[in-house]
Task: structure prediction
Amino acid sequence: MIYICTVHYQTEVWIKPQLEYIKKNFDRPYKIVACVPETRNCKDFYLESCYENDSILSYNHADKLNYLSKVVCLEAKPTDVIIFLDGDAFPIKPIGRYLEEKLNKYALIAVQRKENDGDMNPHPSFAATTVGFWEKIKGDWYPGYSWKNCHGSEVSDTGGNLLKILDDHKVNWYPLNRTNRTNIHPLWFGVYDDVVYHHGAGYRMPISRLDLKNGSIDEDEFIGSVEFVRNLEAQNIVFDEIGNNVNFFERFL
Result:
């Protein structure tokens, strides 16, 4: 069995497209466990929770992923697969054989966004391992552990602590790197290893570290810029394409 952990934060707009691509491309038995908004009044997932926590915003996502993983571990067998999938991410090709081949060679696979100024951490837009391995290493999605980016600045993000755990255990994990041939933004609208799409900024304002040029541009200043307007327009255009064209991702390949 494959257990998919996903978080839909404050809005349901990504639930329908994510489910459509999961149903199309998960060709092995699966169950989805999800954190959803409190306003939700229907059920599409195997388990839905309105779990909230008192952590600061930058830890909110990690808290929910850790919570969902604990729920999965109560039910699943050690040999079952657990997948972490951002709410605005989904597979774009049949993924069953891909998972089997990769997890036969590696204990864990995950998106690694090196395009984000050299980020080293496994990213929860897509990550997969076995339930047994996740329990063994006491997997943790919190930020905290930091690294130096390509500018020499100390940074952390969701998955920072997981990076330290993997390093400490000397785990040979497989990074899914960005494989876009066409980029309309250097970080968002990413295709990874030609199998997973991650929209990026699906639940927040479209401002990235790359847009702020390693902190040299103030966020309020960027919001008033032409580049910010372009980011908003691109987000909306691609989101509409996702709903209208099942092969929308081909423009990036």
Q: What stands out?
A: The first helix runs from residue 15 to 25. Helices lie at 15-25, 57-75, 96-105, 131-136, 160-168, 219-223, 226-244. The first strand starts at residue 2 and ends at 7. The domain at 2-252 is CATH 3.90.550 (Spore Coat Polysaccharide Biosynthesis Protein SpsA; Chain A).
